Amino acid sequence: MRATRAVGPDALRLLGLVAIVVGHAIPDDRVREAVYPWHVAVFFFLAGYLWKPDRTLADEARRRWRSLLVPYLAWVAIIGLPLLAYDDLTSRATVGERLSSFVHGGTYLHNPFLAFWFLPALAVAALLYRALHALLGARGAQAASLLALPLTFVHDHIATVPWSVGVGAVAVFFVGAGHLVQQHRAWLPRLWPPALALGAALVASGLSTPLDMKAGDWGTPVLSFLVAALLSAGLLGLFEFAFRGGGPAWISRAASLGLVLVLTHAVPLYLTDYQLPRWALLASALGFGALMAYLARNRPALTGTRPAPAPAREPERELVDA
């Protein structure tokens, strides 16, 4: 069965989800250099690329609450409650330390909550860009998002703002970049090859260093953000080209459940304390996350999506859809 909707953004989203798991399961310098320059930034970029200008700020807040923050809170409870007992038995963390991390949220959540910071950060970025769009219009919002670039000279401190609010504010740059590409989508078939080549060359040369947005490590100030936008645009163009005639429906379905994979994949990594071969760590992370996604597939509060949505040209899923 082939999807009737554009599959390119979903395929890129799925690649980004797998890249996040790989980055956590295989903490290797080569893996870091390959995926960290783009694998998180691409979701903020896609939020801009799938931007719908007619939504209000209140509507944006409702959608982000349903699609991002409700699953965030639900999985914190599902994983966190048994984890408190496990940590108490193994003395790996105190109850006070865990509860403090739950209260502060975002970047304060440690293993096995490695990717939880991303959800409030994406919500903040989307809401901030929606406010800028309402006040300044499309061009004004895009121009205002450039003001995030000077903040890349400030390391660490921005990431300490609870619930990833600071990270989300900086990541608004990528939302603006994605929105700009959406408005000039006709250029994408011609521009994606040089964008991908230039971005890859700057990373390979070492001029642009990887991003670790959770930690407030913005790589090479300004340049790494520009390169992440180039790579995101290049990969999007590549997948739009590859799936220009449509693609299998399972890609979009898998991407719609990817939020669960991102939130749960680190559980086996934590329980095994990385004391397995790398292939086993990756297989356990992907396998456990996929199993949880399958079990949660009809639970909107856990997936952030409506169960079994009908195919459509414009997605209702909210992991990256703005």
Automatic annotation (TrEMBL):
InterPro entries attached to this UniProt entry: Acyl_transf_3_dom (IPR002656), Nod_factor_acetyltransferase (IPR052734)
Residue ranges occupied by any Acyltransferase domain in the UniProt entry: 9-287
Keyword Thylakoid: no
Keyword entries, A-Z: Membrane, Transmembrane, Transmembrane helix
Domain of life: Bacteria
Chain ranges passing through the membrane: 35-51, 72-89, 109-129, 136-155, 161-181, 193-211, 223-243, 250-271, 277-296
Protein name: Acyltransferase 3 domain-containing protein
